[in-house]
Amino acid sequence: MHVCVIGAGVIGVTTAYSLAKAGHTVTLTDARERPAEVSSFANGGQLSYSYVAPLAGPGVLPNVPGWLLRQESPLRFRPRMDVHQWRWSLAFIQACRASVSDETTAQMLRLSYLSRDTMNAWLAETPIEFGHVRNGKIIAYRSPALLEKARALVAYQAARGAEQRVLNAAETLALEPSLAAMGKDLAGAIFTPGEEAGDCRLFTEGMFDLLGAMPNVTRTMSNPVRKLRRRGRHIDALETALGDIRADAYVVATGTGSRQLLGPVGHDVPIYPLKGYSLSVPLADDDTSAPSISVTDYERRIVYARIGRVLRIAAMVDIGSRDAKIDPARIALLKQQVLALFPHLDLDRAVAWAGLRPATPTGKPIIGRSPAADNLWVNVGQGALGFTLACGSAALLTSLIAGTSTPIDAAPFKP
Fold first, then answer.
1. DSSP secondary-structure letter at 222?
2. What is residue 163's predicted lDDT score, i.e. its pLDDT?
3. Under a CB-based contact definition with an 8 Å cutoff, are residues 375 and 285 in contact?
4. DSSP structural state of residue 298
5. What span, in angstroms and rounded, lies between the C-alpha atoms of 350 and 310?
6. Alpha-carbon gap, residue 269 to 162, rounded angstroms
7. What's the confidence (pLDDT) of residue 77?
8. Which residue of 117, 167, 253, 310 has the lowest C-beta tally within 10 Å?
C-alpha cells in the first residue's frame, strides 16, 4: 500500500518510519525544509512514560481561579471570541471528573508503555544519537499534602506496571543534591528509576535520515499542503505547492494544523493549541549546578532534563495564544523561578523557545481512521506528550491501517 504521511514532526516521522518498516510505500511531506521545525523543536525532553495523567484532573479546577489571577501562574487563559476555544474548554471541564481522569490515565499508560517498548526496539536495531539517557525522574513536592496525594497515584500506577518510590526530603537530596536550594520547603519526591530523556529534534532528525536510506520512502519537504481533495468517501489526492500527491491512504499528522486540513473534508478534530515555553542552557561536562536526574518541580509545573551538554527546561501553559511568538514576560518569570531552585545556573546563555502543543480536552491523542473518508487516517493530539507517545502512536496506527491485531486496545483513541 502507498501511504502519504502529512507532517514531519516527531509524530509524522515516526509514523512514516513504522509504516515503511511494515513494508508500505511511504511518501512523507511537510511545508518546512527540515523535520521537527515546529512543536518538536525544543520541547521538554523528558520521555515520561509513567507520568501520562491528563491535565484535566479532579485537582485542576479548584486551582484555576488562583492560577488565572496570579502573575506567576503556570497556566494563563486568554479568552477569545472563538467558539472552538469555548467548546474545547467546556469539554476540558467535563473531563476533570475523577472517574474520567482515572480511566484516561490507565489508557494512556498502555499507550506510553507501548511507545517505550517500540522506541527501545527500534534503537536496539538502529541506534540514533539524540542524547538518550535512562537516568530516572524525580517529581519534587513542597507541599506534604500534595506528596500524600501523589502517594495514592503511585499505588494506582504500580498496579499498572509502574516502578516508583516515595522519598522523604533527606532521601530526595541524597539522590539529587542539586535540589538543596529548596531547603526546608522540600517535602519529598516521587522517584521513577526507569524514566528516560533525550532531544526530540535530534531524534526526529535521526529517524528522518533513516527514512532517506529506505528504498520505499520518498521525502518531499518545503512543500506546503493546500488541501485534501475528496471524492465521495475517498480522498483522491493531496494538493500541494509542488503538485498532487496520489496514494492509497493518507495520514494527517500535522499537530495544531490538523483542524485547518481536516475541517474542509468534514472532520472537526477537538484540538486546541496550548502554548508552552522552554530554555536550553549550555552546560560544562563537570557542571554540578544542574540536576543529573530529570526533575519536575510539581507546584511550579517546571520540568528539567539534562540532554548531553544542555539542560532543557520547559514550563507553562498559555491557553488562547494564537502563535508561537516568545512572550518576554513569561520567559523572565521562568528564569526567575528556575534561579530560585538552581541559583548557580548561567541563564545568560539560555536559548528561549515557544511552541504550540496540539491538545485534546481529555489529553488522549486521536489515532485511527477519520470519519470523513475511508482512506484518511489521523495521528494527532498528543499535546505535551508528543515525544513520549510518538513511537507507540505510530505502531498503533500502523496496525490499524494494515487491519491486523493491534498491540493495545485502540478504541480509547478512535477519532
1. S
2. 84
3. no
4. T
5. 9
6. 31
7. 86
8. 117
39 SS3 class:
coil
The number of angstroms, rounded, from the C-alpha of 53 to the middle of its chain's C-alpha atoms is 12
pLDDT tens per residue across span 150-165: 888 788 777 777 789 9
Neighbours of 360 (CB within 10 A): 23
pLDDT (0 to 100) of residue 124: 97
Radius of gyration over every alpha carbon of the chain, rounded to an integer in angstroms: 21
Contacts of 65 (CB under 8 A, 6+ apart): none
Quote the CA–CA distance of 120 and 132 in Å, as a whole number. 11
pTM: 0.96
Collapsed DSSP state (helix, strand, coil) of residue 94: helix
pLDDT at 31: 97
d(CA 377, CA 369) in angstroms, rounded, equals 4
DSSP state letters, 117-151: HHHHHHHHHS---S--B---EEEEES-HHHHHHHH
Terminal-residue alpha carbon distance, the chain: 22
CA distance 144 to 130: 36
Closest to 310 (Cα-Cα) out of 328, 296, 338, 290:
290
Q: How far apart are CA 320 and CA 275, in angstroms?
A: 8
- CB of 36 within 8 A of CB of 8? yes
**Cell digits of residue 317:** 501553559
Helices (H), 46-199: 64-69, 83-94, 98-125, 144-158, 169-175
| Residue 202 neighbours by CB distance under 10 Å | 17
Per-residue pLDDT tens for 370-384?
999 999 999 999 999
Angle 330-331-332 (CA atoms, 0-180°, nearest 5)? 90
Cell numbers describing residue 251: 495520514
